[in-house]
Design brief:
Number of strands: 9
Strand content: 5-15%
Distance between the termini: 77 Å
Structural class: alpha/beta
Helix content: 40-55%
Number of helices: 19
Strand order of the largest sheet: 3-2-4-5-1-6-7-8-9
């Protein structure tokens, strides 16, 4: 069984150098191999990979020549190489799982060796027979500890190495910034982007734009960083979510996009938005979550996407926690949420990638948001508030009823003044994003960021940090309306603001 796994790992290494890089970062060691012939080929692969061969090109022909040059080529090695050429190349996810199997077996072999040494000591055989029992016990416990540490930690990196990287960043004046969320400037500054290994939790009542907000983050990250994004939804189809992105880009209602009933201006906006979408869509993977899409399967997807894009990170969005399937579904909702949340936290660390997960709110949390007297928190999550403890960042989207009413009043005044037709009046909510937990947060940042949520076009626009000392916000709503007019986000009867000719009524 072990030799079959070793052959598959060798084939993966020969075909794809990235598989070697990722496997070494996962803590792979040549001592995991048992078969001596397979180990010879493995060492030859590492020689070429590390630049100790005549060329850095890694393929079967180069491997043949390198083994011949080292004087280890024989008929058994030739037959093994011929066999490797015929084996199907495993993907990266399978490769990582094979390495984990070998790691376990290596630990088991070492345990057997320790058991043999203990038996020899007790029966006064071998070199251990003259040792003191206390010294022997310490030596054995150290060996057992090494096995445990290697199983728990895939690769141990001394602090010296990590601190050197930090010192270099400080001297080079580089910021400790994750994946950029611009043009959402305020949240980008507050969170320092989406950082690898961080688990972000977002909660909110229905109709507060949780999914649409994450779709914005998804596209911004790709535009800024060109890093692959995996968006899993257990509520919406891939078609609907892609349509929402086009809606956000074009500021056109998705129902209208589907109907195709667009006027000349709308069709032009759609064509421009589609061109922008094509520039980044190859990095976006929207997956319709099913009963088989467990976190374990998501991990396998992530490794395979890393391999295909030759990158060290992905960004994962989960929509939403309560819908993610578990292998043991016959547990209470509270137990399910607790288990899933802790697994998400571990997965973000294992993949060294940011994971953003939506949580639905319970009835009490939805009531608080609907009434607008008090606000919900992550502790109002469906299934309990354990998400707060597991996550690195906790965010809650809440409707600001007072400012929304003031904004609507300002917009209605545009109708009264004849600047806009009533049927062209957009439905907009003012949304407050509360950041209730922010691990390693920069100093002096507000924990409330405000957004405009255009309900028909699924679009979010960042207003900025909320001034909590500001009691009267009616004037602020006037400035926001002026900004919307200037940016062309209102369908005014007179379009001269953007330098266009007025359209005949």
């Amino acid at each position: 069984m072990s030799i079959d796994i070793e052959k598959k790992i060798l084939k993966g290494f020969i075909v794809d150098r990235f598989a070697i890089t990722k496997s070494l970062s996962e803590g792979f060691k040549s001592e995991y191999f048992e078969d001596p012939k397979a180990t010879l080929i493995l060492n030859a692969i590492f020689d070429i990979y590390e630049g100790r061969g005549e060329t850095d090109v890694l393929d079967f022909q180069t491997l043949y020549r390198h083994l011949e040059k080292k004087g280890v080529m024989d008929n058994e090695i030739k037959n093994l190489l011929d066999e490797l050429e015929k084996i199907e190349t495993p993907n990266l996810a399978l490769l990582i799982s094979y390495i984990d199997i070998l790691r376990i077996r290596n630990g088991e072999r070492r345990l057997i060796n320790i058991a043999d040494e203990i038996t020899d000591f007790v029966e006064r055989r071998g070199p251990q027979k003259v040792e003191d029992i206390s010294q022997f016990s310490v030596k054995m416990s150290e060996e057992l500890q090494k096995i445990a540490i290697e199983r728990l930690h895939k690769k141990l990196v001394p602090s010296e190495v990590v601190v050197k990287d930090i010192i270099r960043d400080i001297y080079e004046k580089r910021s400790f910034h994750g994946f950029s969320l611009e043009p959402f400037t305020s949240i980008d500054k507050t969170l320092l982007g989406l950082r690898p290994g961080f688990y972000y939790a977002l909660a909110g009542a229905p109709r507060r734009g949780k999914t649409n907000f994450l779709l914005h983050l998804s596209t911004y990250i790709i535009k800024n960083e060109r890093v692959p994004v995996l968006y899993y939804s257990w509520e919406q189809t891939s078609r609907i979510l892609n349509l929402r992105i086009l809606s956000q880009e074009s500021n056109i209602n998705p129902v209208k996009l589907m109907s195709g009933d667009l006027d000349e201006d709308e069709f032009k906006r759609f064509e421009e938005s589609y061109k922008r979408f094509q520039e980044y869509s190859s990095f976006l993977y929207i997956i319709e979550g099913g009963s088989m899409d467990t976190l374990e399967k998501i991990e396998a997807h992530a490794y395979n996407i890393m391999q295909s894009h030759r990158c060290e990170n992905v960004v994962i969005f989960l929509d939403y926690i309560q819908k993610i399937p578990l292998e043991s579904p016959r547990i209470s909702l509270e137990e399910k949420v607790d288990e899933l949340s802790s697994k998400i936290a571990m997965l973000s660390l294992s993949l060294k990638s940011p994971i953003v997960a939506i949580s639905s709110l319970d009835k009490e949390g939805c009531r608080l948001d609907d009434e607008g007297i008090d606000r919900p928190t992550m502790f109002h999550s469906t299934g309990g508030g354990d998400i707060e403890y597991d996550s690195d960042v906790v965010m809650v989207l809440v409707k600001n009823h007072k400012e929304t009413e003031e904004l609507h009043e300002k917009l209605k005044n545009l109708v009264k003044n004849g600047e806009i037709l009533e049927e062209d009046l957009p439905s907009i909510d003012v949304i407050d994003l509360y950041i209730d937990k922010n691990r390693d947060a920069p100093e002096g940042m507000s924990n409330i960021i405000q957004y405009l949520f255009f309900i028909e076009s699924n679009k979010f626009i960042e207003i900025g940090f909320k001034d909590t000392s500001e009691k009267y916000t009616y004037a602020k709503m006037g400035l926001i309306v002026d900004r919307l007019k200037k940016d062309g986000l209102l369908k005014l009867k007179n379009n001269n603001i953007k330098g266009e000719k007025p359209k005949s009524s």
